[in-house]
C-alpha cells in the first residue's frame, strides 16, 4: 500500500489532447495536464477551490491596503464601519503592530500560491498558407503565455524524434526551421507520449501539406517519422 501511494505521488500528471478545427484551414492541438472534471462532485470541487482562491486573494490585498493606511496615518474607519465589533479593532491593532518585513513576504508567498497555475498547457496552432504558432502557458495567471510564430515558407521539416532522458526514452515533436541552427521543440515542457505526438504530427501534415497534394512521408535512418 505504501509503495502504491509513493508511485501515485511521484507519477507524472496525466496529459490530455484537445483538438480544435474551427475551419478546414485552421487546426489547434493543445496538450494539458489540467484535470478534466467528469462528475458533478469534481466540478463543484473546482468551483469551491476557485472561490477560496478569490477570497484568500481578496483578504491578502485588504491586509496590505490596511497596513498601508495605518503606516501613513490614514483612517481605517471604513473597515470598522463595515465589519464592526471588537474583533475588527483587535485585528487592525495586530496588523498595525506587525512590521512590513513580516507582512510583505507573507503576502507575496500567499499571492503566489493563489495566482499559481496548477497545470501546464502547451499548444500548436496551424494556419494553412501562413504558418504555425507554438504556445506555452506561464507559471502564474498574471503572466501571458510564451508564443512563437513560424511562417510556412520557413518550415523545412516536421519530425518525431527520440532521445534519452536519464534512463528513459522520450519522444518529441520538432520543427526544423530554415536558416536556424537550433530546432524548435513542440510541447517542450510536457513532452507528451508518442501516441499524442503521432496524432498531432498527422494532423499538422494534413493541414500544412497533404491538402495541397505535396505532402509525403519518409523514414529517417533512426526510425523517426519525417514530413517533406
UniProtKB/TrEMBL annotation:
Keywords: Membrane, Transmembrane, Transmembrane helix. Pfam families: PIG-H. InterPro entries: PIG-H, PIGH-H_dom. Pathway: Glycolipid biosynthesis; glycosylphosphatidylinositol-anchor biosynthesis. The chain crosses the membrane at residues 44-66, 102-119. One of its GO terms (cellular component) is glycosylphosphatidylinositol-N-acetylglucosaminyltransferase (GPI-GnT) complex. GO terms for biological process: GPI anchor biosynthetic process. Residues 123-188 form the Phosphatidylinositol N-acetylglucosaminyltransferase subunit H conserved domain. Belongs to the PIGH family. PANTHER family: PHOSPHATIDYLINOSITOL N-ACETYLGLUCOSAMINYLTRANSFERASE SUBUNIT H. This is Phosphatidylinositol N-acetylglucosaminyltransferase subunit H conserved domain-containing protein.
